[in-house]
Amino acid sequence: LDLSNCSLQSVPPGLAEATAAIILDLTENPLTAVPSASFLGFTQLQSLAVPLALECPGGSDAWQNVTVDRSSRLCQGQRNPCNSSVQLAWPCPENSVCAPDGPGLVQCLCDSPFHGYKCLREGPFPMLLFGGILGAATVSLSLLLWGTQRRKAKSP
Questions:
Q1: What is the pLDDT of residue 156?
Q2: Which positions, given as ranges, span the membrane (predicted)?
Q3: What is the residue extent of each domain of the chain?
C-alpha cells in the first residue's frame, strides 16, 4: 500500500480497513505522530516505511530490523510479542492464550471451551436460557403495554 507523498497530516481513518497489507509506505508525508492503535489488526505487515521524524509503531523491539536513511525509517520483519523473552506488561488471564494483534500489540483469546469475562465461564453459551428469558420478558412487557394502552386508542 503506497501512501507516500499524499500530504497526510495524520493517519487516515480508512487505513483500519487495510489490515491485510504486507508492505506500507507512509514516507514523504508531514505526519507528526502515528498512534500504535492505528495498526491494530495489522498482523501480516512485514515492511513499514515512515518519515524519519517518527519511530516505528510498537518501538524498535516490535521489529526485527529498523533501518534509517536520510529521509525515512524502514521497519521490517514484525516480531511476535507473545514469543518474546520480555515479560508482557499485562499477561493474559488463566484459560486464555496470547495472540499478536499488530506491531507491538497483543490480544488475549479464550481457550475452548472457555468464554466470557476473563475467560472464566466454561462450556457453550446458554443460548436457550438467554433466548427464553428475553422472549418471556418481551411478551410480558408487550401484554402489559397492550392492556394499559388500548383504552387510549380511539375507535373509528
A1: 59
A2: 125-146
A3: 13-79
